[in-house]
Design goal:
Radius of gyration: 35 Å
Helix content: 10-25%
Largest sheet: 5 strands, antiparallel
CATH topology: Immunoglobulin-like
Number of domains: 1
Number of helices: 1
Strand content: 35-45%
Distance between the termini: 84 Å
């Protein structure tokens, strides 16, 4: 009987374990939330180099664009042309019209660009996408992480009135705004 009694004890213990209430596990979910605001910056990469304008037809500069969201870029020309401080006389001018092209590469491999005449880049003008009061060059939601934008100023020397001798200059200001 001993074997039967031991077997009964083992079976009883097994039944007790099987029928014992199982531990109930509680669980919760914790949601982590945060926000990273859209931010843009633009810095000078390389200024326009001084060129001999009678033999060159353009000059280039660069700017570094860093935006973690879509953006809009605008340009302003201080003079609306390349100007010289030199005096003018009949048949001569100290203003040289030029066209500014801005090309900004995006992280996805595409590039957004626009070209405008310098006169349209004066404060208050809106006849060009880059104009201060214009819509701005949009990245269409694309981002630019430390991308090098290119600015190209191009001109054609007029035959009449001819440009006076001297140094010509303009100041171009680029602005960039994050657009979510």
């Amino acid at each position: 009987m001993r074997l039967g009694r031991s077997l009964a004890m083992v079976c009883g213990a097994a039944v007790a374990l099987i029928s014992a209430p199982r531990a109930h596990a509680d669980s919760i979910s914790i949601v982590a939330k945060g926000t990273i605001n859209g931010a843009c910056s633009i810095t000078v990469g390389q200024n326009f180099q001084s060129v001999n304008m009678t033999s060159a037809t353009s000059a280039s500069a660069t700017a570094v664009v860093n935006c973690n969201t879509g953006f809009v870029t605008r340009a302003t020309s201080a003079n609306g042309a390349l100007v010289s401080a030199g005096a003018t006389s009949a048949n001569f001018t100290n203003r040289l019209d030029y066209t500014l092209k801005l090309a900004v590469p995006l992280d996805g491999g595409s590039t957004v660009s626009a070209s405008c005449g310098a006169a349209t880049l004066k404060a208050g003008q809106s006849s060009c996408v880059l104009s201060p009061a214009g819509g701005g060059l949009s990245s269409a939601g694309g981002i630019a992480t430390n991308q090098t934008a290119t600015l190209t100023a191009s001109w054609t020397l007029p035959t009449s009135p001819r440009p006076t001798a001297g140094s010509y200059f303009d100041t171009i200001t680029l602005s960039i705004t994050a657009m979510p």
